[in-house]
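Troubleshooting: if your tokenizer reports a length mismatch, compare against these two reference records.
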Amino acid sequence: MKYFRIGACICSIVKHNELYKTQRWLSIGCSRRNAGKTEIEITKYQEIQAFFRNEPDFVARLNNDFALPFTDINVVFSQLQSENKKDNHLPVAASAPSPLYKFFKQGLVRKPAIDFKYICDNPVEVAANFKNRKILDDFCVVKDIIEPYKRCKLISEEIAKYRMMDAEVRAQLGSISSVDMDVDERKKLQDQLTKSKTFAYCIITILSGIKQEVEAMLYSKASLLPNETHQDVPVGETATLLDVVGEKPKFDFEIHDHIFIAEKMNFFRQHNIATLVGKRNYYLMDAGAELEHALIRYTLDKLKMKNFIFFSTPNMLRDVIFEGCGLEVDKFDQMVYRVRSVPESNFCLAGTSELGFCAYFTNHSLSYKDLPLRLCAVSTCYRKETGTRLDPRGLFRVHQFQKVEMFGLTANETGKESANLHAEFVSIQKELFEELGLHFQVLDMPTDDLGLPAHRKVDIEAWFPGRGKYDEISSASNCTDFQSRRLNILYNKGGDYHFAHTVNATACATTRMIMALLENGQQKDRTVLLPECLQPYMYGKRSLRKQKHFPMKYVGLQQKKKNYVIPT
């Protein structure tokens, strides 16, 4: 599709030269914020305003051929209007809910390297994978991904044509003084060429704005595409049993759940605290807190012997990292705590140190000779847990807990590196839990439970006698290049750069491990036998017994008998 006006010289497009560099909102690539406005900007805005007013038929053709049905040209104009009235930072397209795309437009991260060629070449396979993952019901690969992607390519090609024409017009303007012609004729030609540049500038501005809108919609949809699924992953809702370790403990007395045991031993409190700290929170005191720290130290010692590098990661991160790691944008408010004090910064509280690790390596490259990397961190994990009403009491489903996380980075030369590290992490988990004396089963999780980033995920479920069932105590995911493509995490081999693979796994989620140890180690005399491997970390304790510590009496306004204590 070509557009011509007043001869070939009018079919030109103004390149982004020094005169127009302040037009940041046009940028197809990365731009940074720039305060204030120049007279040139205001003039150019007025030219575009006049173009929309004086060329309605031409604008309509641009709208029909390039914008519809993905966006409308009036959206582009309204974006320019709103930005002309505000400070001159780069706006994000109105249709873009993606924090990652917004970061890209602000010049803070590269454009997510979604493999659109693979999607276009394999639409049936991509659609089947999406359906198996059950991400969205109304998602269509052709309509939501392939068609807007092809439209963006079409617009880019059209822009390139006009920029080539612009070179010719600029060359004519540069040499017009040397042309042998009448002064009046030269002035007339110069005016025509100048008008051509203005007209062409408006075309490229509109096309660039349309592309930004379509591209924003494309990347917001593409962010929902899950990773490719490993061929051995079961499709549906039922996991495949890979291994069973140990046997269920046998009891010749009445058994209890962890809540009963911990409360009777006076090292767990959850009653009368919701008013001040909210529901699904808790206190661990004395031996309970000792047990939590013992589990962390035991786990770290084991990982240190396996040459893991220790990290301490931030708990507060920008939402772009959450999306880049695979959290669906429309589930943020359901799963993540946002920090409201500075809304425009979009900080959230991390649910795992995996996010902090990914942030650390974002926009960086590693040397091939240093891979694979094995890292670990202890962090406080924050989970909103608003999507379920299960387990309102106890330690199983809480808003915050301590966790030791394993994280790895590998190359992708043979296609097996990340799979091997994933298997290594699972073997470490099994070693840790078996030494703690737990009975557990290892599961290859089905497509329903993979989420967006995992290529393959293995969960370990321990037996909880007090609950009378198996429940998850750890997870290990091979995310291949899903996170690195979105966050620009690379490795360098011989001067060539490639996307690294990421692997993550739980080494110890303290709350669930405490639950498992209490319920599996409970004794007839109402003590809890500690695993031998933990005893050195428990200051010589071999078992947990009822704690004697400072008693307290409730004196608040909610006491049943209104015998208020009034201080003097």
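Reference record two:
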Amino acid sequence: MKSVYLCRVSSREQEQEGYSLSSQERLLSEYGDRKGLIKTKVFSFAESASQKKLRKIFDEMMLYVKKQDIKIIVCEKTDRFTRNLRDLIGIYTWLEEDEERQLHLVKDGLILHKNARSQEKFNLDIKVVMAKNYIDNLSEEVKKGQKEKIERGWTPGSPPLGYKAIEFEGKIIHVKDEQYASVVTRMLHLYASGNYSVERLSRLMFSEGLRSKKGCRILASRVHGYLTNPYYYGKIEWKGKLYPGKQEPLIDKDTYDKIQHILTNNCTPKQSKHTYLFKGLIKCEECHGTVTWERHKGILYGHCHHYHDCTQTVWVKEYQVEEQLINALKLLQIRNKRIQGWIYKAILASHEFQLQYHRKVLANLILQKEQKAKQLSELVDMRTALEIDKEEYTIKKNKYKADEEKLETAITKQEKYEEKYIKLGIQFFEISQHAKDKYDKLFPDKKRMLMNLIYSSITLNQGKVTFTYSRAFQILAKAVVATNSSKLEDLVKLPKSIFELPEKISPMLQSPHYLSSYTDVRRRRESNPR
């Protein structure tokens, strides 16, 4: 009589090793030979009651035996056949439809059919209930272990790309993966810049060596998952809730929030067949429409598209626009090297005042955090003494925890402020002095980033470019006009000590009341500090 064999292992690892499946199939084949059964097909799979997708194979087997009119199903034992009541009801229904249908459970010594004795059916029911209890208890223990691991600050399961699992003091923890951590960090910062779409970012990272476990390009959908994963800034998302994690972050909270803003507001650049240098950067001065770029006979032209009423008729070549903007970069350069050195020192000196203020803010935040921790401790004592009920305790606890988390974020930001603030000022000044020299060496996308950084708006009027510097560069441009003035030529001949910044800072200016107005105070000081 025709039959099918069902071989099942408890885990995917056992299925890949093959030992359990092969031993089961050999046992069932020997049993079938003794009973005179004809094997038509063997269904082998790893299945768990919690993995719904893998149950598809079991349902395919039941559909196969009905379609091919197979009368006998052979399995090793009850818990290999089913571990839930739904399948038990399904097999009873299948047996009741035909008296010739049978279920053989080899190691249990059971042969179930429509007219089987009640004791045999009872034995099957008991074994299924016991198998279900085993699975339920196993699931309960796994969830308990997962919860404990999350409370300790570690995520259950495998870490995301950029991290790896290692054993430390008998426990599995997650640390940075030296191979991919820097690449993933770069990917997140590139998207936060707002200059890349998810698809373009996926292709760029593939060209820079980022690969999946199989060595393939990571698709845009998977990249999107990485961009939305809070794990990279130190949190663990589990069943819709965020928990504090102990893993070393790859980015800060501000960068993560910026990424989410770009994703949710749909403001990333779209994939385009043509990527031009000034695409979307220049407006028509008359109608304020975006200048359109077209290529004719190998030359790229920009012109107003006349979506609004406009009298502009000139088509300007791309290199002509580029030349005008490059020449504008010269206006930011300070010709006198000695004055450049003074400004550089002034930047460092001004940072010291700002840093004093932020250090005071940091000390205040740490004090507030300690107060919150004390309040939380007192709240626990009140609950232990039954002075408040569980509901009030939960509400206040969540509030204190939320406040503590905000303070922790603010503290982290202030701790990083000192280094970032100094670097930002120095980089800003260096960009302004060397922008023209570095421009020609940049790739088109970097050129666009430089243009966005220096210019807040660029307009076109009959082929002539008009621009407005961004706020920071506006201030610098005014200073450059003054420092490059011919009136300053004689000043460089005076003794160096006259123009050097003082070693010590006025005690009055160190007062917090003067910190906010420090820039104005410094500007009104005499050139000779003596």
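Descriptive notes for reference record two:
- The longest helix spans residues 390-439.
- Residues 411-524 form one domain.
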